[in-house]
């Protein structure tokens, strides 16, 4: 789908956040960008979104086709919903910004809310929703424009463990059923191991990709307790031990 | 129970204070041209309401006109400053200078320059009132969540869409805080301007009645006008507070 070609990013203050990152992301990949705070994983995500430009190198899209409005869905760490709009209006926002009439896209809004299990809360304002539900609306808002690439920046980090598990399961199922390409930033080894089909292990300052681990964990209710999951967590932990400065 | 007591407390305290005041005036036999008691003040109002009420209306007209002007100018400048950092750099220091210069000092100039008395008073009150709206709205526009700005960018939003669908609604609570401060400042501005203008001004506002009463040593009437001004200030403050609660509740849902 896209390749990252020797991408470096230096901030205005001189900090080198990313150094010569090269990776290819294929259509249908669920990539977890895994690393400690400050390793540049969010920076890489912003480069993928086109919200920032690399200092060096380039991100090259297949067919030479740069993404346009709506081709990239972005989910932030906070739900960042408009507090004055109900769930359906929040989901409608990306389509509204591109001039689509509400009536014309109503089925798409309903479908996006159904995908995250919130069909019954279309008329609720964010104030009336729990943290997990707000994040679900935020994911529906990213899905409604049917993006080619879904970028998620630690979306579940602020949620409690039980809510986080439910959302991880639902997101994983959503990826399996839709085949969306997802890049998911996290600092949790367990989350990366549970969700992703590939894990990019990032080393801190300047950020580099230290390992690209392909995962193969059996699907199903025992996913979190399977021996494959346990050994994957061990493998990733071992990788970090090697790349983290002591 | 304690809540109810707390709600009653200011009224009870006020009544007790008024009673002590009236008692002191009676006991010490203070002449009304030095300090009138509350009863004399009420009597003065009852005798003069056909002069004082129109005066109140006149001051209130200046205040509200100035508040509308201050809101329009303040919001327009804040939007211009949010849209362009060049405009911000150019305007900000002048807005601060205008704010820190005491309006009492500028008022005589304005009254000379602006021929029409009503307009002159409105200009003075507007100068005093517009700054809180400008600075609060500007702060609100600047505090738009950066993630939402990114989201709008990713979806190819136009500048107008970003302004009307995101920045202005985000700034609403900040604007309302500014409006509440400006509402009482507009009243202060109207009164100050009337004082400076004196009989050369509109010659009908409450402040003018206060000056007039002081020349004639009609102290109870002076106090009556003062009480009217205080009540007006409280009403403006409370009304804008209510407006802000209603608007925010409507915006974010109950």
Offer a concise description of the structure.
With 246 residues, chain A is an alpha/beta fold. Helices cover 36% and strands 24% of the residues of chain A. Helix content of chain B is 85%, strand content 0%.
Characterize the structure shown:
The complex is a heterodimer of chains A (246) and B (254). Chain A is of the alpha/beta class and 246 residues long. Helices cover 36% and strands 24% of the residues of chain A. Chain A is built from 7 helices and 9 strands. Chain A has helices at 41-49, 87-97, 102-115, 131-143, 161-178, 189-195, 227-243, and strands at residues 2-10, 16-25, 30-34, 56-61, 72-75, 149-153, 181-186, 198-203, 208-214. In chain A, the strands form 2 sheets. A 6-stranded mixed β-sheet of chain A has the order 5-6-7-3-8-9, sandwiched between helices. In chain A, strands 2-1-4 form a 3-stranded antiparallel β-sheet, with helices on one face. In chain A, a hairpin with a 4-residue loop joins strand 8 (198-203) and strand 9 (208-214). In chain A, helix 2 (87-97) crosses helix 3 (102-115), helix 2 runs parallel beside helix 4 and helix 6 (189-195) crosses helix 7. The longest helix of chain A has 18 residues, at 161-178. The model of chain A has no long low-confidence stretch (mean pLDDT 90). By secondary structure, chain B is an all-alpha fold. Chain B is 85% helix and 0% strand. Chain B has helices at 2-27, 38-83, 85-100, 103-113, 117-142, 146-154, 159-197, 206-215, 219-252. In chain B, helix 2 (38-83) packs antiparallel against helix 7 (159-197) and helix 4 crosses helix 5 (117-142). The radius of gyration of chain B is 23 Å and the shape is flat. Chain A binds chain B through residues 49-51, 68-70, 72, 74, 76, 78, 80, 82-84, 86, 93-94, 96-98, 125-128, 145, and chain B through 145, 147-148, 150-157, 161, 165-166, 169, 251-253.
């Amino acid at each position: 789908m896209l390749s990252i070609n020797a991408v470096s990013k230096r901030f205005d203050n001189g900090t080198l956040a990313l150094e010569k990152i090269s990776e290819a992301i294929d259509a249908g990949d669920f990539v977890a960008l895994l690393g400690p705070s400050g390793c540049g994983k969010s920076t890489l995500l912003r480069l993928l979104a086109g919200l920032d430009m690399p200092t060096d190198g380039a991100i090259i899209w297949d067919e030479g086709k740069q993404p346009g409005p709506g081709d990239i869905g972005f989910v932030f760490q906070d739900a960042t919903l408009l507090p004055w709009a109900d769930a359906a209006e929040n989901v409608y926002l990306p389509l509204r910004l591109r001039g689509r009439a509400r009536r014309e896209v109503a089925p798409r809004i309903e479908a996006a809310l159904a995908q995250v299990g919130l069909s019954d809360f279309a008329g609720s304002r964010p104030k009336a929703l729990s943290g997990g539900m707000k994040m679900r609306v935020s994911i529906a808002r990213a899905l409604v424009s049917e993006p080619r690439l879904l970028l998620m920046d630690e979306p579940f980090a602020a949620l409690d463990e039980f809510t986080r598990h439910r959302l991880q399961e639902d997101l994983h199922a959503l990826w399996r059923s839709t085949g969306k390409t997802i890049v998911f930033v996290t600092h949790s080894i367990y989350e990366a191991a549970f969700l992703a089909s590939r894990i990019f292990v990032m080393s801190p300052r300047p950020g580099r990709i230290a390992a690209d681990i392909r995962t193969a964990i059996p699907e199903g209710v025992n996913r979190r307790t399977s021996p494959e999951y346990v050994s994957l967590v061990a493998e990733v932990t071992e990788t970090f031990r090697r790349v983290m400065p002591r | 129970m304690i809540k109810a007591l707390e709600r009653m407390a200011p009224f009870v305290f006020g009544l007790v204070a008024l009673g002590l005041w009236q008692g002191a005036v009676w006991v010490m036999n203070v002449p009304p041209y030095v300090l009138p008691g509350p009863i004399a003040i009420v009597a003065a109002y009852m005798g003069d309401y056909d002069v004082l009420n129109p005066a109140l209306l006149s001051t209130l007209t200046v205040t509200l006109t100035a508040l509308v002007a201050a809101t329009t100018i303040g919001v327009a400048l804040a939007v211009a400053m949010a849209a362009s950092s060049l405009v911000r750099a150019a305007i900000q220091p002048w807005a601060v200078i205008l704010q820190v210069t005491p309006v009492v000092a500028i008022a005589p100039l304005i009254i000379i320059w602006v021929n029409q008395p009503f307009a002159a008073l409105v200009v003075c009150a507007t100068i005093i009132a517009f700054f809180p709206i400008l600075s609060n709205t500007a702060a609100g526009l600047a505090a738009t969540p950066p993630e939402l700005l990114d989201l709008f960018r990713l979806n190819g939003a136009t500048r107008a869409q970003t302004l009307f669908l995101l920045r202005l609604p985000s700034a609403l609570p900040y604007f309302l805080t500014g409006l509440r401060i400006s509402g009482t400042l507009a009243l202060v501005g109207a009164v100050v301007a009337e004082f400076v203008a004196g009989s050369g001004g509109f010659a009908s506002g409450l402040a003018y009645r206060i000056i007039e009463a002081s020349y004639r040593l009609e102290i109870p009437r002076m106090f009556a006008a003062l009480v009217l001004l205080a009540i007006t200030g409280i009403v403006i403050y409370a009304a804008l507070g209510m407006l802000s609660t209603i608007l925010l509740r409507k915006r974010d849902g109950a």
